[in-house]
Amino acid sequence: MNSKYEPVFDSGTSASYVYHMILHECQGSSPELEIMSRENGCPCYRADKSILTCNSIVAAWTRGSEGFSFPSQVGYPLESNQARFYLMETHYSLTANEYTWPPKPKAMVDNSGLRLFYTSTLRSQDAGVLSVGMDPNWRHIIPPGQEHVVSEGHCVGECTQRAFPRDGVNIFAVMMRTHQIGRQIKLRQIRHREELLPIAHDRNTDWNYQEYRRLSAPVRVLPGDRLIAECIYDSSARAAITLGGLTTREETCLVLALYYPRQKELTTCHSLPSLPTVINSLGINELVPGSNPVRIASPPELSGMTLETRLISYDWRNNFRSFQYVTRRGSFKPLCWSAKNQPMPGTENLEGFAPNITKSYKLIRSCSFVGSTNVANVLFQNRNRYVTESETSVDRAAAAAGSDDDDDDDDIDSNNVIEGAARSKVSRSSVTESMGLSGGPAAFRPLGAAPNMFAFLLFIIFLYSFRIAHRV
After folding, report:
1. From CA 61, how far away is CA 310, in angstroms rounded?
2. Where are the transmembrane segments (predicted)?
3. Which residues contact 266 (CB under 8 A, 6 or more apart)?
4. pLDDT at 143
5. Cα 443 from chain centroid?
6. What's the pTM value of the predicted model, to 2 decimals?
């Protein structure tokens, strides 16, 4: 049983390029996995993901982290009779002064990885990882020149209802991830029509320091609960739109939640704005069916224009509020995937909408909080609060971060807060200076831009082939 893991760098040079490493557990033992396990790995973008049954995360590391130690009662099960194959996914990121066009990446060989510590003494709880957020895709659009852009990734109740055990699961640690322009991340919890206290809230994210951090107390999530990863971006320094994607010049909005007891029915619980929501947010009524490149059919004043041109030339300054309203209130596609990298049965045709919340949480404020001997009040006020800076600087950072769109956000300034290190300043524009469409809207990808993250997949066969340090 895995009790701890830490990064192992091939050299000091590779340590500056490795951005994150994720170890996946593969289900089954297909001939395709056997063949791939004997290969040297390949770029993530070229992998045939239809044969990869590797959708369970065992360990995740990001730059700035020293690894993670599980609580004494929880561990991740490592058994060769249950999983023979594991997949290592490594992303490399260039430094700021190495962005060039055309790209000229340095030739280098890297053997960095993860060292797993395990104990032969079983722990009382098996841990699992649930990914909640926006699916990395071009439909995740962040307009330029805005200080406060909100994106939301939904894990809908229909998915947790089908997957979670009757007594629910207990989230005990979270890794909250954006890329360069992320400013805040919140993991929200909705039960029926009531919004509960946020499971965690990072008001000062740093894309170079996004590791697993334990909650002060586990949070119970029941079947039917909705989880929402809410991310706030500051795109004021960018002149072009930013799209969702895997590279660090694109953006992401993900929360990896460590929980127990482990279940394999639901490992990835994302959402993706529907195509009607996207085109309506851009003032488009209808697209020309089958057009390539994709062209606009109506309204008449946009007829014949390509979708690409509309994205580039849209008047974001004057239309931002309407864009934000449509993207947050419009329909979306729930994506509920199992450990075998397949949609959960019964979720293939779901359509999602923003929750109709009729009751929200309120922070109980007390004039006697400072120096209070009321233990229950102190614990409530500090639920899932993490501080990596002095309290004085934390207060200044929270005040400077601005307020969310919702009126209740001011109520949780001192509650469920994860304060990261100083947020990185972004001065470069978006990766999407020019874009193209291939194979229709669903295959939209930016073209003509220097990729600044390279990702590789490496198969490791059998459990004993890991770098594992035995701890009895």
Report:
1. 38
2. 447-466
3. 130, 159, 160, 162, 163, 164, 336, 337, 338, 344
4. 97
5. 20
6. 0.80
CB 312 within 8 A of CB 144: no
User: How far is 213 from 209, CA to CA, in rounded Å?
Assistant: 11
Q: How far apart are CA 429 and CA 235, in angstroms?
A: 9
Q: Same domain, yes or no, for 251 and 139?
A: yes
Q: For residue 84, what pLDDT is reported? A: 87
Sign of the Cα pseudo-torsion (137, 142, 143, 144, in order): negative
> Looking at residue 348, what is its pLDDT?
93
195 and 312, same domain (yes or no)? no
Compare 461 and 392 and report the one with higher pLDDT: 461
Q: Are residues 207 and 140 in the same domain?
A: yes
Contact 185, 178 (CB under 8 A): yes
Vertex 207 angle, CA 203 and 211, to 5°: 80
266 and 303 within one domain: no
Q: How many CA atoms lie within 13 A of 274 on its CB side?
A: 16
**Among 251, 304, 298, CA closest to 279:** 298
Burial of 361-400, coded b for 16+ CB within 10 Å and e otherwise, reads: bebeeeeeeeeeeeeeeeeebbbbbbeeeeeeebeebbee
Residues 85-108 have pLDDT tens digits of 999 999 988 754 444 555 555 677
180 and 218 fall within a common domain: yes
Top pLDDT among 248 and 433 is at 248
What is the domain range of residue 311? 278-319
Q: What is the pLDDT of residues 399-423, one digit of tens each?
A: 333 334 444 443 333 333 443 322 2
